[in-house]
């Protein structure tokens, strides 16, 4: 019987290192092949829970939040672009001009998990924002991403129209924050092993192999 690993991937759809971490993790899982059974769940984390509806210019936001200089921002963007490309994810830095609120995206991801389509929706949302420069708080975009992920667009619209799963998302966010998760991505394996940050494929693969070889 293959060992089973439950992976909770705590992240935000507007976090570039979360995209890098996810695609690195996916490659690590593919490298291991059928040696292990992986049960992957995406858990919510909002980088900017108080972001205004219209969003904020991304350069302005990063300067205010981190005190970054234009040179530092350019170096960071190139590092992110290169790291993404290395694991098969395309960042279009020219397309993404603003930071937005992502709470509704997390509500939709919660619903998608119940429908067995969480991973394809997560990938569709990351592509929509980082590759296509679309607004992850826009309901039309969210419905289009849900449709791309194989979900029913009418049901997605109904979820977004009200406050469905809002309490669930907030409760889950509080749970991880109260348990010390204050930066993402945070990859928690079998509820005991934490890998922090957008690590390279080799790091994820090494940890997964070690845990798969460890008796339960």
Description:
- By secondary structure, the chain is α+β, with helices and mostly antiparallel strands.
- It has one domain: Glutaredoxin (3-Layer(aba) Sandwich), CATH 3.40.30.
- Helices cover 53% and strands 13% of the residues.
- It is built from nine helices and six strands.
- The chain has helices at residues 16-32, 58-66, 70-86, 103-114, 118-131, 139-148, 153-161, 166-178, 201-213, and strands at 4-11, 37-44, 56-57, 98-99, 186-189, 193-196.
- The chain has a four-stranded mixed beta sheet, sandwiched between helices. A two-stranded antiparallel sheet has the order 3-4.
- Strand 1 (4-11), helix 1 and strand 2 (37-44) form a beta-alpha-beta unit.
- Helix 1 (16-32) packs across helix 9 (201-213), helix 4 runs antiparallel to helix 5 and helix 5 crosses helix 6 (139-148).
- The longest helix is centred in the N-terminal third of the chain and has 17 residues, at 16-32.
- 33% of the residues are buried.
């Amino acid at each position: 019987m293959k060992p089973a690993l439950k992976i909770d991937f705590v992240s935000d759809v507007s976090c570039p290192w979360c995209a890098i971490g996810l695609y690195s993790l996916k490659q690590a899982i593919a490298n291991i092949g059928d040696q292990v059974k992986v049960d992957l769940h995406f858990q919510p984390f909002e980088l900017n829970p108080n972001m205004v509806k219209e969003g904020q210019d991304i350069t302005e936001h990063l300067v205010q939040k981190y005190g970054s200089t234009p040179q530092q921002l350019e170096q960071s963007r190139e590092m992110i672009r290169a790291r993404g490309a290395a694991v098969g994810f395309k960042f279009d830095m020219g397309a993404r001009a603003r930071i937005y609120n992502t709470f509704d995206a997390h509500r939709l991801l919660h619903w998608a998990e119940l429908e067995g389509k969480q991973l394809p929706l997560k990938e569709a949302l990351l592509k929509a924002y980082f590759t296509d420069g679309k607004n992850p708080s826009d309901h039309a975009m969210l419905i289009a991403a849900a449709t791309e992920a194989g979900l029913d667009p009418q049901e997605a619209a109904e979820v977004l129209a009200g406050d469905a799963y809002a309490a669930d998302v907030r409760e889950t966010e509080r749970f991880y924050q109260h348990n010390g998760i204050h930066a993402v991505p945070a990859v928690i394996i079998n509820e005991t092993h934490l890998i922090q940050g957008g690590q390279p494929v080799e790091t994820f693969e090494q940890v997964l192999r070690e845990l798969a070889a460890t008796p339960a």
